[in-house]
Structure of Fibulin-7-like:
Amino acid sequence: MRDVMRSYYATSQHHVCSLKECSSTQELQNSLRQAQKLLASHEASYLQSLRSLKRKISQLQNSTARMPSRPGDASCPKLEAPVNGRKLGKVLLPGHEVHFLCDPGYELVGSETRQCRETLTWSGQQAVCIEINECASSPCANGGSCTDEVNGFACVCTRGWAGPTCQSPTPTFFATTTNISASTSGAAAATSFPLTTLLPFVQPSKCSQVQGTTHCSCEAGYTISGRDTSICTDIDECEVFHNGPAGRLCVHACVNTPGGYRCSCPAGYQVSRDGRSCRDIDECATRQNNCTRDRLCVNTYGGFQCVKVECPRTRDVTYAKTSPTRCERNPCPVDNKACSRAPVSVSYHHMSVVSNLSAPRVLFRVSAVRMIGDALRFAVLESRGRRHFSIQRSDRQTGELLLLSPIQGPDSLEVEVEMSELEKRELIGRYITKITFFVSQYEF
């Protein structure tokens, strides 16, 4: 018993402390408890982040499992050119586009541009070229009937009217002479002019006598020449009917011919089937160009351009051409911030427009096939002719380039449209589309 008491006394003596020492011990314990709470809070946050990360990885694995597996060189199904039309673009890999054009006299129904998606399916609708009904606008004036033809129309005019659109009157001019004696009439009949001896723009009149009166008339396109009733001279339709009820006789130039007229077009155009309009000759499709193999032939109104598409060259970024009109950025080093801020891709497009094209109108659309971020931003960058254009949104993933004012040709303008992809307002990718407009010197 004495030993136990001695031991208890010794233990009690060991834990006896001064007020100052006990205060320091309590502060240390409080600090340890606070550190323990902070560690527990960080541990809970870390565990929550891990659970969230595991959940996202699981969702990605599930979505990947649902996606059909495909080899690295898989491509979208081949698209055929529409009947009476053409297809531009041969690359069928995801992210690439094909474009469709219709032959003159036909209009496109469906999607003008289709893009190969990651699911190896094409965006948009199948393109079909249907014949334009030129008679729908009632081009035949003065009661003429219209017959639709491929890339044109034909008018059957009523009596007294002529021309491609029945716009020119064809009056018969009469000259009447009274109290003509038989001897005078005989003399007049004897003094006829052989047709072979007259100029092309001069013809003899056709005269007949009715009850002692002589009536003279001319063929369509001719008129009695002054007081001489025996001569018919050509009517210059280009001068007389320059601005008729149906507008100008010719869209470009009018050439007077004996008894009529014909329309002519500038170099690079040909006269349409209506006889008055001008149709552009596609030198690229008909191989009437001298573009070398390393250059792209771009048809313009009245001519063509040989364009060489080159990828951007900068110090910190390299690009590779993935199609004749598209360059994509090579992977960037991890620590190269200048490279990561450079455009992911640069696309080149070329368009031909007529002079003084009416505005406002949409000329081009830029769209994202798939989005990684949560927002897209569109902008027109500083370039020559910037004042003529603006950008507007048509939907969440599409921006439209808007022509604000007409452009007087001939001219060529380049516009750069930037599409930026954002994630929580942070830039994660830039895509540049460069569009070159070739403006004709004519309004057709």
About this structure: Residues 96 and 115 are 6 Å apart (CA to CA). The first strand starts at residue 85 and ends at 88.
